[in-house]
Design a protein that fits this description.
mainly alpha; 18 helices
């Protein structure tokens, strides 16, 4: 009986190494995420936890669970009240961490894998120090204490992923994020469709998806698109290339409905850069060109058949989204306020005034409520959160981040570099760094890269050792 169970487990473990199984497993996780987001987020969380348990039992490896961990974030379909502790959510997160920590202790992790953490540890320390001078004005603002510990969450996620993955996991991340851009696009389309019944002009408002605002959804679509391009480049069949390019086309309505000028520009920059790099690095440039030309032709045909409606919506977007041109939309006032706060005292210059420096009533997922002011710039947000010391740690982290991807093959390095550079440049004008929807995927990606590099190096060393024994 025990032998039969072992045989079946061995069979399923071999099956999980099949690339088609990986793809189907990720698609199921994406569906769990979407169902949770659309119906009930705790249903989605439960399904993803079951998926993690299933993959751990089946493979005794965290690599497949990278998909589930990434999708937890995009399952959130509503915000949390500033004056209430979200106990069910905390229980779900705690349960997930307990399962993963038990797995790590059982498998005796190798701490030599840990590489890209100096900057993150520094940010943990220097964004926490200002909690010493945070004084909540009333009991409703006590919840903001939790915000100071977010970098500890990011660091914990990094440790769990880098120590838990025994085999190469970057491929799982790439495949998962190739679907994330489509998933977010559908979330945007559905949310915008619901709002259209209440507000005729969807392009004149900002709305929430739960885990983030519509403009933030645009950022994450653009951040994830280069990962889809990696799969387009590496596809060996025309059928697979067409499938991946079709997924890419699904992101267009999602980006349009974000009604974000920044997202539009970032999308154009991302698509242009990725297409250019794809054509340079493709083995069969003609086939790629033919497929792209065919898809553009189909798009033009659809446009011509619906020209009147299309022109109407184009004019509506221009008049609503670009009504005020490319002005800073109040960001300059926020930056002045941040600079005044930063230079207010020597303490603020060195350590920062803290992530919760200013609390104002603002529109949140739960209506008007107290919310921390975010300064829409990586530079100013870092100076406020951790002062000069925090900014130095961010520079160290950025160096570690770009150093990590430089170890990848030319294709992965090129596309991920496009994603990083464009998102970091965009972050000078909007929210990217220090925001949980960007930081969680980023630390998981770095953990996957660090783990993979160690696994590859270990395999090389073992092969060299075996060859030396044969020679002897």
């Amino acid at each position: 009986m025990i032998e039969k169970i072992k045989t079946k487990i061995f069979f399923f473990r071999e099956l999980t190494r099949n690339k088609k199984f990986e793809e189907y497993y990720i698609i199921f996780n994406v569906l769990f995420c979407f169902l949770g987001w659309y119906y009930n987020q705790f249903l989605g969380f439960s399904l993803l936890i079951l998926s993690i348990i299933f993959s751990l039992i089946l493979t005794n490896d965290l690599r497949l669970s990278v998909s589930s961990l990434l999708l937890f974030l995009f399952t959130i379909n509503k915000g949390f009240d500033a004056d209430k502790i979200p106990i069910p959510f905390i229980v779900i997160i705690a349960l997930t961490f307990i399962i993963l920590i038990i797995y790590l202790f059982y498998n005796k992790p190798d701490f030599k894998k840990i590489k890209s953490i100096k900057g993150l540890i520094g940010l943990c320390i220097f964004t926490l120090i200002p909690i010493l001078w945070y004084v909540p004005k009333n009991s409703n603002q006590v919840m903001f204490y939790f915000v100071y510990f977010t970098y500890f969450l990011y660091l914990a996620i990094y440790f769990i992923v880098v120590l838990g993955c025994k085999n190469e996991s970057l491929g799982i991340f790439i495949k998962t994020f190739s679907y994330v851009c489509v998933l977010i696009s559908f979330q945007v389309i559905i949310t915008a469709s619901k709002i259209c019944f209440e507000n005729e002009n969807i392009f004149s408002i900002i709305y929430y998806l739960g885990w983030g605002m519509s403009n933030e959804a645009g950022i994450m679509i653009c951040f994830s698109i280069p990962f889809l391009f990696i799969l387009i480049r590496n596809s060996t069949s025309t059928k697979d290339k067409i499938y991946r390019l079709s997924l890419l086309c699904c992101t267009i309505p999602g980006i349009i409905l974000t009604a974000s000028r920044g997202a539009y520009l970032l999308f154009l920059a991302t698509i242009s850069s990725c297409t250019f790099f794809l054509l340079i690095k493709s083995k069969n440039k003609k086939r790629i060109m033919y497929i792209i030309i065919a898809m553009i032709s189909i798009a033009l045909l659809v446009f011509l058949l619906n020209a009147r409606k299309a022109i109407y919506y184009i004019n509506k977007i221009i008049s609503s989204v670009f009504e005020e041109g490319f002005n800073l939309n109040g960001r300059d006032e926020l930056w002045k306020e941040a600079w005044t706060l930063f230079t207010h005292s020597f303490r603020n210059i060195v350590f920062g005034s803290g992530v919760v420096s200013i609390i104002r009533d603002a529109i949140t997922p739960n209506g008007w409520a107290p919310a921390q002011v975010v300064f829409h710039s990586t530079l100013f947000q870092t100076l406020i959160m951790g002062g000069i010391l925090g900014f130095v740690c961010l520079i160290i982290h950025l160096f570690e981040k770009y150093k990590a991807i430089a170890k990848l093959n030319k294709i992965e390095y090129g596309f991920i570099l496009i994603s990083f550079v464009l998102t970091d440049l965009y972050g000078l004008m909007d929210n990217t760094y220090h925001m949980f929807y960007y930081m969680i995927p980023l630390v998981i990606l770095l953990a996957c890269i660090d783990s993979d590099m160690y696994v590859i190096e270990s395999n090389k060393n073992s092969d060299i050792g075996e060859n030396e024994e044969i020679i002897i």
